[in-house]
């Protein structure tokens, strides 16, 4: 009897540890409407003010002035809207010059997933699991200041120093009372940490190479089973543009594994492209991405930009496909000159 109790206690402790570790808050593709229209193949491009998020070194290749207001949403409904499921909502504002940028982003990740049972299965039948559902909400408010420095003719190094104010809340409820809306309504304690992102961009003619290191100084929010982590994340990209710079194709690769909102491991690869009409009145984007740890599911995305007046654009993006975690939409107003 004592041995059985010890086994059950060990299993319960292991489940708590796994649950906490799986609460990593990776959301690298939640920001940037142009990036989303290219399925995230943006690390070697990043030539607008969202470079403060995607690759700080990209601001050196952008226009003299660029400002963006954006909104977006990604929702993973799960099979027949069952669990696990997640929803990521974002909004932000960024402004950039060729050597500096300021940004603010708010990202909320809500998730629900089953709570594994710790009870031993009855003889002669399989463990049927638990009907309890874990709800979790992670809300991040990030204020960033980006500066860059050219090293010679081909290389730019830059960093985003950021102040991250975030809260994490979690709760276990019966399945009948669990939903993404209920998870989004959870309220938890707020912590504030300083952080740092570093980016590099090399350019050789029409070829660009990019490297992004997000969360150089890792930070955590909450405690114990309610902990969410901002892990160090490496991502690389390559892009090739036409001589007129009206067309560009790109590819991105995660160099490290991340944990999604519902606890699944991810290492993504993406390809995308962008083309502009002469005079840059209209722009069109498309791309595809895949979690290389689960290559059976693919997300396809597309986007359009339209000039409402000289230097002012409306950007939209949408993603579909068999990869539920990337389905969503985004909208931005962009001013550039």
Short description:
Helices cover 10% and strands 53% of the residues. The protein is built from 4 helices and 18 strands. It has helices at residues 2-21, 33-37, 51-54, 180-184, and strands spanning 66-76, 85-97, 100-114, 132-151, 155-174, 190-204, 207-214, 219-221, 228-230, 233-241, 247-254, 258-259, 265-266, 268-276, 282-291, 298-309, 312-321, 328-336.
What does this structure look like?
The protein is mainly β. It has a single domain, classed as Outer membrane protein transport protein (OMPP1/FadL/TodX) (Porin), CATH 2.40.160.60. A 14-stranded antiparallel β-barrel has the order 1-2-3-4-5-6-7-10-11-14-15-16-17-18. The N terminus is likely disordered.
| Total number of strands | 18
For the terminal residues, how far apart are their CA atoms? 74 Å
Broad shape: globular
**CATH superfamily label:** Outer membrane protein transport protein (OMPP1/FadL/TodX)
CATH architecture: Beta Barrel
Which consecutive residue ranges, at least 5 long each, have pLDDT under 50? 1-24, 121-129
Helix content: 10-25%
Which structural category do the helix and sheet elements fall into? mainly beta
Mean pLDDT: 86
Give the neighbour order of strands across the main sheet: 1-2-3-4-5-6-7-10-11-14-15-16-17-18
**Number of spatially distinct domains:** 1
CATH class value: Mainly Beta
Main beta sheet: strand number and arrangement? 14 strands, antiparallel, barrel
CATH topology: Porin
With helices defined by DSSP (H or I, 4 residues minimum), what is the helix count?
4
Strand content: over 45%
Give the topology string: H per helix, E per strand. Answer: HHHEEEEEHEEEEEEEEEEEEE
